Amino acid sequence: MPRPALRLAVEIDGDGAHPAAWRRAAHSPGELLTPRRLARVAAVAENAGYTLVTLDDSILPPGRGADPVGRIGAVERAAFVAASTSVIGVAPVLATTYAEPFHVSSQLSSLDHVSAGRAGWVVGVEDDAEAARAWGRPRVEGSEALAREARDGLRVVRDLWDSWEDDAVIRSVSTSRYLDRSRLHSIDFTGETYSVKGPSIVPRPPQGRPVVLARPGLVPAELTDVALVGGGTAAEVVDAAAAATADGASPLAFAEIEVALDTPRETARERITDLERYAPWAPRPDRLRYTGSPAGLVELLAELSGRVDGVRLRPLVLDEDLAVLSRLVLPELFVRRLAARPLPATTLRTSLGLARPLSRFTTDGAAALVREENR
User: Fold this and answer.
1) Helices in the chain by DSSP H: which ranges?
2) Which of 35, 75, 177, 259 is deepest in the core (most CB within 10 A)?
3) What three-state secondary structure class fits 164?
4) Residue 52 located in a structural domain
5) CA–CA dist 105, 160 (Å, integer)
6) Which structural domain range is residue 323 located in?
7) What is the CA radius of gyration of the chain?
8) What is the pLDDT of residue 369?
9) Is the separation of the CB atoms in 258 and 289 below 8 Å?
10) Beta-sheet pairing, 288-292 with 226-229
């Protein structure tokens, strides 16, 4: 069965995908860490019709060379974006490699409440020894151990979201009760390296569970909503998307695409050459890369439409490429009905065509299902 129109996401962390992107930014270096800059970029993305913005993060600075770059925490930025927008979804990167899953759960639940159901979560990992030292924790080494921490962290976060049933908050004036304590549940999780009892300290998120995005293989596919797939060619991306969504795995697959576009003054190649004087832009096997005209990108996305559920774009230089995307790429996609805009007053799950899940602790599944259908 063909997939519906593409959902569009864009990464808005920093100044762009190129390590030296800040050298072509349209703002002073100090403005990168100001709320005005963040609000402006988020507004451009929302007005252009993106379904989702993502915000990369790490406890370590994003730059390690001669030009290190600072950043504000992704959750804090996401909360600001949520308060300054009304339609677009917001998904920060958060790793549970060293962070407490209980705190991650609370942060994302709060973000979903603040945004009225527009929160997502890009599951990340911290695989650098310096990250362990920054957290003051023993280093988690090896792909298997990193995957274990990500898997256990995701399970705990999901269970904590479910630990409040949807009708746990009763606000009964006659009985002077705010909560029905029978509808709060301890999750009683015991893993290889830690245990969590619960329940959460934050009521269940408006979406039930914020949308979870992750790379295939990092965490169990059945625990995610969107698989972030890549490849060196469009055909490889399509194959990766098919594998990620096969046999009851992740419901959706988004292609990861780095984009460098021709602008009215310079070609994409000229812009890349200019930035390569300062730092190389090494290709990544988990991302498709497009370099060229906006019309060519439209044709690439037309080729992917119906074969992937969405794309996450990573612009070469945010201030330059986001404007071209907004003026010349997204409008053409909408005219050709290759992509869909999110509708006002909808949750991110609704925008992505995902059902709102019931809490796994629901005491009366049939009654709860009726309540969900009548919302």
Assistant:
1) 35-48, 74-84, 101-114, 129-135, 143-162, 234-244, 268-276, 294-304, 318-324, 330-335, 348-352, 365-373
2) 259
3) strand
4) yes
5) 7
6) 7-160+200-373
7) 21
8) 47
9) yes
10) unpaired
Listed residue (196, 206, 216) closest to 169, CA to CA: 206
Residue 265 lies in a domain: yes
Total domains in the chain come to 1
For residues 52 and 89, is the Cβ–Cβ distance under 8 A?
yes
Reported as a single tens digit per residue, the pLDDT across 200-246 is: 999 999 999 999 999 999 999 999 999 999 999 999 999 999 999 99
Rounded distance, CA 339 to CA 331, Å? Answer: 9
Taking 50 as the pLDDT cut, the residues of the chain under it are 365-370, 373-374
The encoded tokens of residue 342 equal 């999110």
Measure the CA–CA gap between 143 and 66, rounded to whole angstroms. Answer: 29
Token pair in block for residue 294: 């906006």
- Alpha-carbon distance of 375 to 372, in angstroms, equals 5
Report d(CA 17, CA 315) in Å as an integer: 6
**Among candidate residues 341, 309, 314, the one with its CA nearest the CA of residue 325:** 314
| Within-domain flag for 76 | yes
CA-to-CA distance for 316 and 10, rounded, in angstroms?
A: 12
**Cα diameter, the chain:** 71
DSSP for residue 113? H
Residue by residue, DSSP assigns 37-86 as HHHHHHHHHHHHT-SEEEE---SS-S--SSS------HHHHHHHHHHH-S
Distances (CA, A) of 326 to 40, 44, 50, 329, 342: 13, 8, 9, 6, 15
pLDDT in tens, 56-71: 998 877 665 555 567 8
pLDDT of residue 331: 98
- Tell me what pLDDT residue 71 has: 82
How far apart CA 103 and CA 157 sit, in angstroms, is 9
User: How many Cβ atoms from other residues are within 10 Å of residue 347's Cβ?
Assistant: 23
Unique residue bearing structure tokens 């300054």 = 84
Query: What three-state secondary structure class fits 238?
Result: helix
Asked whether residue 179 is domain-assigned, the answer is no
Token representation of residue 360:
């796994």
Q: Do the Cβ atoms of 161 and 200 come closer than 8 Å?
A: yes
Find the CATH number of the domain harbouring 245. Answer: 3.20.20.30
Other CB atoms closer than 10 Å to residue 36's CB: what's the count? 9
Cα–Cα distance measured from residue 65 to residue 50, given in angstroms and rounded to the nearest whole number: 32
